[in-house]
């Protein structure tokens, strides 16, 4: 089914598209090539209509002028342009790897009172960090003795609002076994609401992984889940993101990527670790001179 | 249970001044040097210092970060210097340079001049550094190699590059290189593949 295109939709020329995609890439690391033309044009046109701009130039000028204003048009545009597909227990084998292999290894190097910090970035609408919380509660008895801090970030503020609200349609839960749905969700008119205890346990925040300045605030992380983000990037922004996450990790910390993403091609900063359940990437415990 | 939340997980450090970052670029600790490189890269106002640091940096990880920093806001001068650095660099550094050069838009003029160098290894690195978004100038120069480069391995890499990005204009050069190395099997295979990819017919 195709959406009808109103004849008064603002025009976006080839040059406009190039200018926009270059700017957007610099801000977010996300690459839009010509093949994404339709996707991008539709969203740009919608943002232009909603902000009362008939001409691309005027819209783009206003966008650049207010670019660094929090919550401004740049944020709206980012929210419109990101692809936020996610669901509970996506690539569950990585959670198994976390519990079976990564946490035991990390604990062997940490004092009994030290908090472990796990960061889901990008978290989109929260399914991934909530899955982590549920998985730990279900499969990691040591949670009774250890403190774990769950951080969850995304560039898209609309998604973060959804994550904080924790109300999900049934399709987001399709991979989740029924007993877990019963235990952690309440049926409501709008869908399934996740337990308040879980909502309170996760710190959500807006973070752009490509923004070196804001990434400086994130340190001492033990495990990063960075799944299904780098596929939207080009080689350079992948490398920048990999390096920023490298800085955020403690020595010996781990990064888990989506199954279609491979860090070896992205950066030689990490060591590839093959565990029974998954391949993950480790920041070396010692830095390696050559 | 012990899922805990600290309201403000980590306090954002204020961005350090440029001078401080330049000092940190010479810190004893490699991690500090790497972070300083990234921060300077995002500022985009310390290319010369980053290039100087790369020249002498002993740690491979930090060197990678210096190169990523340089690629963040690249200009012609950075591209020139990185391309020229390929000449004197050892194998490890050459590989690092190739990876970053490939990511620099507009690198063709700086890289193509290296194809005139007498060192066949350098010519191969230069071919590998050429972008997969070729300029007409780069296409023409690589096709020229197929007519006159004496080194068979250089020609092999050139053929592979053309297989990815070539156009029918380069078909005569592809046929010419096959004729120049009649006994070399891998050249024949590579040419066949390139010709098929480009969509020409023998
Ligand atoms: C496909 S979702 C992945 C969600 C989850 N990690 C998963 O695998 O199911 C991709 C998310 O990346 C976010 N994103 C895109 N660019 C980003 C950036 N530069 N920094 C942080 N998040 C970004 C988008 O907003 C989107 O929510």
Automatic annotation (TrEMBL), chain A:
Catalytic activity: L-glutamyl-[protein] + S-adenosyl-L-methionine = [protein]-L-glutamate 5-O-methyl ester + S-adenosyl-L-homocysteine
Record-level Gene Ontology MF annotations: protein-glutamate O-methyltransferase activity
GO terms under biological process: methylation
Highest taxon of source: Bacteria
Keyword list, A-Z: Methyltransferase, S-adenosyl-L-methionine, Transferase
Known EC number: 2.1.1.80
Residue span, CheR-type methyltransferase domain: 5-286
PROSITE patterns: CHER (PS50123)
Protein name per its UniProtKB record: protein-glutamate O-methyltransferase
Keyword Nucleus among UniProt keywords: no
SUPFAM superfamilies named among the record's database cross-references: Chemotaxis receptor methyltransferase CheR, N-terminal domain (SSF47757), S-adenosyl-L-methionine-dependent methyltransferases (SSF53335)
PANTHER family the UniProt entry points to: CHEMOTAXIS PROTEIN METHYLTRANSFERASE, CHEMOTAXIS PROTEIN METHYLTRANSFERASE 2
TrEMBL record, chain B:
Phylogenetic placement of the source organism: Bacteria, Pseudomonadati, Pseudomonadota, Betaproteobacteria, Neisseriales
InterPro entries linked: ARM-like (IPR011989), ARM-type_fold (IPR016024)
Protein known as: HEAT repeat domain-containing protein
């Amino acid at each position: 089914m195709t959406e009808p295109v109103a004849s008064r939709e603002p025009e976006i020329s080839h040059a406009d598209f190039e200018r926009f995609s270059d700017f957007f890439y610099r801000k977010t690391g996300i690459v839009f090539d010509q093949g994404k033309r339709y996707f991008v044009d539709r969203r740009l046109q919608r943002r232009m209509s909603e902000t009362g701009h008939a001409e691309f130039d005027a819209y783009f000028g206003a966008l650049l002028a207010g670019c660094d204003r929090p919550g401004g048009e740049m944020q709206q545009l980012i929210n419109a342009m990101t692809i936020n597909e996610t669901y509970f227990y996506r690539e569950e084998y990585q959670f198994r790897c976390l519990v079976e292999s990564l946490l035991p290894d990390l604990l062997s190097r940490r004092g009994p009172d030290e908090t472990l910090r796990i960061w889901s970035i990008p978290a989109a609408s929260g399914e991934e960090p909530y899955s982590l919380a549920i998985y730990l509660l279900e499969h990691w008895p040591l949670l009774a003795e250890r403190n774990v801090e769950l951080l969850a970030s995304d560039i898209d503020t609309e998604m973060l609002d959804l994550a904080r609200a924790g109300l999900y349609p049934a399709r987001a839960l399709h991979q989740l076994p029924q007993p877990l749905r019963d235990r952690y969700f309440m049926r409501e008119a709008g869908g399934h609401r996740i337990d308040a205890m879980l909502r309170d346990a996760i710190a959500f925040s807006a973070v752009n992984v490509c923004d070196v300045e804001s990434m400086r605030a994130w340190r001492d992380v033990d495990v990063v889940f960075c799944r299904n983000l780098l596929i939207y990037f080009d080689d350079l922004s992948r490398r920048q993101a990999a390096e920023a996450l490298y800085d955020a990790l403690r020595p010996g910390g781990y990064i888990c990527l989506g199954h279609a993403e491979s860090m070896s091609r992205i950066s030689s900063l990490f060591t590839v670790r093959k565990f029974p359940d998954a391949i993950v990437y480790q920041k070396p415990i010692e830095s390696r001179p050559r | 249970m012990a899922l805990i939340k600290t309201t403000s997980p980590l306090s954002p450090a204020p961005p350090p001044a440029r001078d401080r970052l330049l000092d940190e670029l010479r810190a004893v600790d490699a991690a500090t040097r790497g972070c300083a490189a990234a921060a300077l890269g995002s500022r985009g106002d310390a290319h010369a210092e980053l290039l100087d640091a790369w020249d002498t940096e002993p740690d491979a990880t930090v060197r990678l970060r210096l190169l990523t920093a340089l690629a963040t806001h690249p200009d012609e001068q950075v591209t020139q210097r990185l391309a020229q650095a390929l000449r004197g660099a050892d194998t490890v550094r050459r590989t690092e340079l190739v990876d970053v050069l490939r990511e620099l838009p507009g690198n063709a003029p700086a890289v193509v001049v290296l194809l005139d160098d007498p060192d066949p290894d350098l010519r191969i690195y230069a071919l590998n550094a050429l972008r997969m978004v070729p300029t007409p100038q780069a296409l023409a120069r690589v096709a020229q190699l197929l007519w006159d480069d004496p080194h068979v391995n250089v020609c092999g890499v050139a053929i592979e590059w053309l297989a990815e990005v070539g156009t029918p204009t380069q078909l005569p050069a592809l046929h010419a290189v096959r004729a120049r190395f009649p006994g070399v099997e891998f050249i024949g295979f590579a040419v066949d593949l390139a010709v098929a990819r480009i969509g020409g017919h023998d």
